[in-house]
Amino acid sequence: MSDLDDFLTPTLTRQLEAEQAFINGNPTLRLAMWSTQNPVTVFGAMRSDSGQEEVRRVFRWLATRFSNCTDYRFELVAAGASGDLAYTLGYEHISFSMSGDPEMLPQAPGAQHVGPRWGRGRSASPGHQRTAAVSRRPGQSRWRPIAAGPPGGLAALKTCKTNEQVTKPDWLASRWSDCTDQRVDLVAAGVSGDLAYTVGFEHTANSVDGVPVEPYTLRATHVFRREDGEWKIVHRHGDHPPTDQSRPGEASPE
User: Fold this and answer.
1) Cα–Cα–Cα angle for 66, 123, 103, rounded to 5 degrees
2) C-alpha–C-alpha distance, residues 127 and 112, integer Å
3) HEC profile for 76-100?
4) How far is it, in rounded angstroms, from Cα 111 to Cα 109?
5) b/e string for 224-254 if b means 16 or more Cβ within 10 A?
6) Tell me: the pLDDT tens digits for 127-147?
7) Closest C-alpha to 131, from 253, 17, 19
């Protein structure tokens, strides 16, 4: 069995069971899947959190909002495994009920958080979100997720699945100009074998489609693979932080 099969065969089965239970309000199986060794990060639809204790607190809180799961399926787009790191990319197709405006989740001292602490309520209805996850294998035990999200998009503007789509330079580059600031606020990173990942915030100020230069921040996850001795990006996952919230240090127009 290859490293990838060794990762995917048991992990996707456990993930399916854990997510179905989680969306029905029971976080036990999801908590059992996630790593207890930092760094652990989540870039979620409503929150951005880091640190295994804070992430687990958030999962327990979210579970109190979810119920009536009638469908959860994971459509795998790509995956890889090397050493003690692995990743999956795909689409989650979900139908469930979410409660509206629960009590605010208390903020733990020193916890890193971006985003509103609750969202609008919605009833059970079908939908899907694009997700990326990185997993680590402590010792020879089971694979455990250490980074996930953001559901907002595999890319801020477009999802590309093939090398031809990704490497076409005449779309995104033609829209951008006059960059006055570009910085990365690294939150977490790891390397094992021929895989590596980074999780962080990109602070940029530039012009898009000729409009005046404006600052903005993206949450970004990158997966790297070592090819012929050089690290190459095999996946980028970026989106804007939740509405009306940004991480300290975002790009300034000056």
Assistant:
1) 50
2) 29
3) EEEEEEECCEEEEEEEEEEEEEECC
4) 6
5) bbeeeeeeeebbebbbebbeebbbeebbeee
6) 455 566 666 666 655 666 656
7) 19
pLDDT in tens, 37-54: 999 999 887 788 999 999
Question: How many Å apart are CA 233 and CA 10, to the nearest integer?
Answer: 26
Paired tokens of 103: 């009590």
Helix (H) or strand (E) segment spanning residue 9: helix 3-23
Domains and CATH numbers, the chain: 3-148 (3.10.450.50), 163-239 (3.10.450.50)
| Range list of H helices, 24-110 | 28-33, 52-63
**In whole angstroms, what is the distance from residue 32 CA to residue 14 CA?**
10
Work out the end-to-end distance of the chain between its first and last CA atoms, rounded to an integer number of angstroms: 55
The C-alpha atoms of residue 152 and residue 148 are separated, in whole angstroms, by 12
Amino acid identity of residue 1, one-letter, is M
